[in-house]
Amino acid sequence: MEKTELAIDCRGLVKRFGNYTAVEGVTFQLPTGAIMGFVGPNGAGKTTTIRLLCGVLMPTEGHATVLGFDVKTQPEEIKQHIGYMSQKFSLYEDLTVRENIDFYAGIYNLTGTFAAERKQQVIERIGLNERLPQLVQSLSGGWKQRVALACALLHEPKLLVLDEPTAGVDPVSRRVFWQIIHKLAQEGMTILVSTHYMDEADTCDYLGFVFYGRLIAFGTPAEMKAKENKANLDDLFIYYVEREAVDDPRNKGNR
Amino acid sequence: MKRFNWSRFLAILVKEFRQIARDKPSVIMAVGMPVIMLLLFGYAVNTDVDHMPTVVWDQSMSQDSREVISSLRNSTYLDPDFYVRGYDEIRRYLDGSSARVAVIIPPDYGKQVQGSGNTTVQVLVDGSDPTAARAAMSAVQTVGFNTGWEVQADRLAQQGGATPVLPVQVETRVWYNPDMKSLVFNIPALIGLIIQNVIAMLTAFSLVREKERGTLEQLVVTPVRPTELMLGKLVPFVIIAFVSLMLILSVGILWFGVPPKGSLLLLILLSMLFVTTVLAIGLLISTISRTQLQAMQMTILLILPSILLSGFIFPRETMPLFLKGLGGIVPLTYFLVIVRGIFLKGIGLEYLWKETLVLATFSLVLFFLAAKRFRKNLD
Q1: Residue B79 pLDDT
Q2: For chain B, what percent of residues have pLDDT higher than 70?
Q3: Confidence at residue A2, expressed as pLDDT on a 0 to 100 scale
Q4: What is the pLDDT of residue A249?
Q5: Nearest by Cα to A27 from A9, A6, A44, A15
Q6: Which domains does chain A carry?
Q7: How far is CA B199 from CA A190, B167, B210, B216, B303, in A?
Q8: Which of B1, B10, B217 has the CB atom closest to A106's CB atom?
Q9: Cβ contacts of residue A9 below 8 Å, gap of 6+?
Q10: Is B207 within 8 Å of chain A by CB?
Q11: Whether residue B149 sits in one domain with residue B186
């Protein structure tokens, strides 16, 4: 029964590239329908952890199941059931919005009338109707972000993975984007999102703080603030970074 | 889940066609470049040496000397258009490259020919270009021998003897390319070279572009399989390669008038085998390079030795063993044997099976390597 309740069950996940340890013993459980924010400085291992959970990278040690599928043995099942979007909005710039949507519908094996219905639903939900014939390269950052989100939602994923989705996007677009995210979560979709914006992190159900490859804190935003007795997440973030940086063996080597 | 999925494959295929159609430079490169290259190379790569400008110092000014000069002109190898007096002027012509050959006829030429003496015609040849020099020398030797023989025959006839006959004669007949036109030799080879260059570059570019723009990173997170992606990307290029092939074949046959003596069907089939090999090379390049610039450099690294070592310009028989061996690992080498064999000699698989087998092996091995690296790239 545990499998259906937990969207992500991650135990002692380790990833090494040669001698370098990018992710060191990450453990957390995320219930279905929750929004989890992944915060931490650049190079902390957020993206590597995300790629491990998406079934793109093989963990060196540890276990993880995503939507009940094992990341080691069932990566293809995971890929079919998750939606992924990164800060690069990896769309085909020389194709129109509609052509991009058509492409990803095909890639997720949607066919016939079902495909047409899904496309129309997503287009209306994200509000892309007027932009359909436009080439992606002529869109602004905010619109590209929305198209990328639309492409990631076509196959009705149970888990949406967003790697810094709002980096370099204007405040209005950010707000619209997060409204959609919260709506999706209310409808039962689980969302894993990495971000540098603490106002965004504050609205998540759970937060994971990643530093030097380790998950040093996990809990609801309120719990985390209360635990370290900080008024807001910005203070908490800086507190963690300063505390952990002293312990880091690499810093000692450099000085 | 691991099975090949047609919907995903078709999605990639459609996307590729849309991108190619929107990418005008690529279309021009794929369709226009081969034809332009064929026209350029067809006219520029011409090693036929004839009508060489020739300077003449005729000191004899006799009927006989004029006959020698006109037989030189009739050989079509030399154009004796310049007449001078003195070595200084001859030097000026040769130094300034206004003439490649100088013919000097001695003052007593007519007298000696009419009488019963001996005479010598001097010929100076600009040897900077050995091929041209050799052609000029053999032309003047032939004219000299024929003139000498005629004079000798006249003399014997005047003495009342029978018309002499040479006791030993050599009769030459040239097969396959009787007029010995270099165009007939080069056009078939060009078809191979052009297909290689254009298709390798286009294929390499198309995959590296996804890497460079970060779309590959997105595809990795989707359920798309490496085989679906690879085939979806290659099939459009097979079609483009086929269109290019038909286009340059038509230009070669209709414009340059070099029709294949052998089976056109076999030629097209084996050309497509070569295209497959080149696609594999392009794929391999794309898995190794990270940017389009690197892909471009690697393609040039492939093109240059293939021009020099494949026997496209220089015959492989005379190469040092090491270079000959190097040429042996260039697929174009084998395709040139095939395409020249079919075009010029009209031979079929009974002679070309070895080259066909080698090409097939090449494409299998290269595809295996490329697919292996490609998978690694995605994971």
Answers
A1: 92
A2: 97
A3: 44
A4: 56
A5: A9
A6: 2-254 (3.40.50.300)
A7: 45, 58, 18, 21, 12
A8: B10
A9: A2, A3, A29, A30, A64, A65
A10: no
A11: no
Chain B interface includes A54 (CB < 8 A): yes
Express each pLDDT in A145-163 by its tens digit: 999 999 999 999 999 999 9
| Same structural domain, B140 and B244 | no
Instruction: DSSP letter for A207, please.
Output: E
Residues B153 and B19 in one domain: no
Region A169-178 average pLDDT: 90
Residue B352 lies in a domain: yes
pLDDT tier, B1 (very low <50, low <70, confident <90, very high otherwise)? very low
Q: Please tell me which residue of chain A has the smallest CA distance to B209.
A: A92
In a shared domain, residues B11 and B66 = no
Compare CB distances from B222 to A86, A88, A108 and report the shortest one's residue.
Answer: A108
Let me know whether B36 and B56 are in one domain.
no
Q: Give the DSSP letter of residue B338.
A: H
> How is residue B306 written in tokens?
């293939």
Query: What's the pLDDT score for residue B377?
Result: 61
What single-letter amino acid sits at B210?
A: E
Say if residue B149 is in the same domain as residue B134.
yes
Residue B202, domain extent: 6-46+181-378
Q: Select the residue of A90, A95, A109 nearest B217 (Cβ to Cβ).
A: A90
Q: How many domains does chain B have?
A: 2
